[in-house]
Design brief:
The protein is of the alpha+beta class. Helices cover about 35% and strands about 25% of the residues. The protein is built from 18 helices and 22 strands. The structure holds flavin-adenine dinucleotide. Flavin-adenine dinucleotide binds next to β5, α4, β13 and α13.
Length: about 500
């Protein structure tokens, strides 16, 4: 092995994901600093018949990151710059296009964009993921008109088999092919099928080193969080009132207590609307989220003590969730978009784990699924003495063009079942939900606990109607299988 490759790698280093439920000790763990390092790593691996995979922040709970041979941390590649206009077609020159190195963490990206007067149009509940990791598993936030990560991308660059540099865009992509052809080392592919496969490809198309995203100018959000009982919310879902709110509000989500307290399930609704900076309300309180929930969510010790408490008296789960939901109430919160879209506490990084499922954003279906979750929670408690430690978040996402997106070509409601890792029965509860939700047609999130899908390749193929386009293109771009891993193989996608 070349001295440079030795100097940027460790032999048999044990890597684990954020929650430590996935652990690997690959042959070599690399820290590439630029695309040239990645080229050399791939060439070296292919000479030896080895596989290559990258990891972001390891915030996937699934086995998407697993690799036994060469594993690459992308963290040293974190530059952000406005996309040079020289190579762009005229109609793209006025858009807010930013080129982002793959390993940047969203928290840092948000700060850099803010300094440039820009912002991501949307994000998930946290900002610890890398941009490439968020993209490749289909990370989403909420907002029926706000894109998930793959749908913010306009162009991506990867190092493929043989160390080839490839830039992939849709057929009507941003790059002027006549100018681009002068750069011989970077092959431009402008093709819808390749692009809508690559933007959500679970690391199986090559190592992505840069993505170009279309983003927005800095914007401000006003958030309202309030409590509503399930019986009332159900009525509003059935009458169409709640779905009208989802359509007419920039970002909406709700969380439900799976346990009844005083005869009903409590739900906490979050509404966020884009406002002008000059609409900033007066008074300190509106510039601050509910202090109790913010402090609680950020202090690891408090979460650890909640886990111990949960394990001592699991039957109190419903009351604990009730208190937590009530504590999130705000009169109003006003801040820059990335602060408002961030919905979680730091402590969940190591302690939260979940299975999440995509359904049609259809009110009847949502009522059916939520009531089945409530029923399952009570069955788990009665028959298995198993109690889940968190509320059920429900979020809304617009149709995606990515072939492997669980929101492919349909408005989608994502229903999540998060838990505190290391509470009694954590994975057993998630398995029970996976079986039940898959039975109801729910498509599990690629980055969350989804091991039951290994037994259900037929389900995957029926739900992702164009999976074959993805799979054929993958083979075409990666004929040696360098970028495959057990996860992609076990899902039946190879
Ligand atoms: C606390 C918490 C909250 C979360 N909230 C949300 C949420 O609100 N919405 C949501 O949709 N999801 C959410 N997730 C899931 C998370 O966003 C995804 O699993 C995401 O993929 C994690 O990003 P990462 O950078 O950690 O990627 P990793 O988990 O490290 O990797 C994900 C995949 O991308 C591949 N990969 C990463 N970088 C590259 C690269 N440069 N080239 C090729 N392949 C690469 C990896 O091999 C792997 O297959 C949450 C997870 C946690 C832990």
């Amino acid at each position: 092995m070349e001295p440079r490759l030795k100097s940027i790698s460790k032999e048999r280093y044990t890597w684990h994901n954020a929650t430590s439920n996935v652990e690997v000790t690959p042959l070599r763990f690399f820290y590439p600093e630029d695309k040239d390092d990645i080229i050399e790593i791939i060439k070296d691996a292919e000479q030896k018949g080895l596989r290559v995979r990258a990891v972001g922040s390891g915030h996937s709970f699934s086995e998407a990151t697993i690799c036994k041979d060469y594993l690459l941390s992308m963290k040293k590649m974190d530059e952000v710059f406005r996309t040079p206009k020289s190579d762009l077609k005229e109609e793209f020159k006025e858009k807010h296009l930013v080129s982002i190195e793959a390993g940047i963490i969203l928290m840092v990206l948000n700060k850099k964009l803010d300094a440039m007067g820009l912002a991501l149009p949307n994000m998930g509940a946290v900002d610890f993921q890398t941009v490439s990791g968020a993209l490749l598993t289909g990370t989403h936030g909420t907002g029926i008109k706000q894109p998930a990560f793959p749908d913010m991308v306009r162009s991506l660059k990867l190092v493929g088999t043989g160390g080839a540099l490839i830039q992939i865009e849709p057929s009507d992509g941003m790059t002027d092919a006549t100018t681009h052809s002068q750069q011989s080392s970077l092959k431009l592919i402008q093709d819808d099928k390749t692009f809508y496969s690559a933007i959500l490809s679970l690391g199986a198309f090559g190592i992505i080193y840069e993505v170009t995203m279309e983003i927005k100018q800095t914007f401000w959000l006003q958030e309202k969080r309030y409590i509503k009982k399930w019986s009332k919310l159900k009525e509003e879902l059935q009458s169409g009132e709640f779905m009208a709110l989802v359509e007419n509000t920039d970002f909406v989500a709700f969380r439900a207590n799976p346990y009844k307290i005083k005869g009903d399930h409590t739900c906490a609704i979050v509404e966020q609307n884009i406002v002008r900076e000059e609409d900033k309300p007066k008074g300190f309180m509106s510039l601050q989220r509910n202090l109790i929930s913010t402090i609680f969510g950020d202090i690891e010790y408090l979460i650890e003590s909640t886990i111990r408490q949960m394990n001592r008296k699991p039957q109190n789960a419903g009351k604990t969730i009730e208190r937590a939901l009530n504590a999130t109430k705000d009169i109003s919160y006003f801040a820059k978009s990335h602060k408002v879209l961030y919905q979680s506490g730091l402590a969940v990084i190591r302690h939260g784990i979940s299975s999440e499922f995509a359904f049609d954003a259809n009110a009847e279906k949502m009522v059916e699924v939520l009531e089945r979750i409530f029923l399952q929670a009570s069955i788990n408690a009665k028959n298995g003495k198993l109690y889940q430690s968190s509320h059920i978040p429900v979020r809304f996402v617009p149709p995606s063009k990515a072939y492997l997106s669980s929101a492919y070509k349909r408005k989608t409601a994502y229903i999540d079942v998060p838990l505190l890792h290391n509470t009694i029965g954590d994975f057993e509860i998630l398995e029970r939900y996976q079986e039940m939700m898959i039975g109801l047609g729910g498509i599990p999130h690629w980055g969350k606990v989804n091991n039951k899908l290994y037994e259900r390749n037929d389900f995957i193929k029926s739900k992702f109607k164009d999976w074959k386009i993805w799979s054929d293109l993958r083979k075409q771009l990666d004929p040696k299988g360098t970028f495959l891993n057990d996860f992609v193989v076990k899902m039946g996608l190879s």
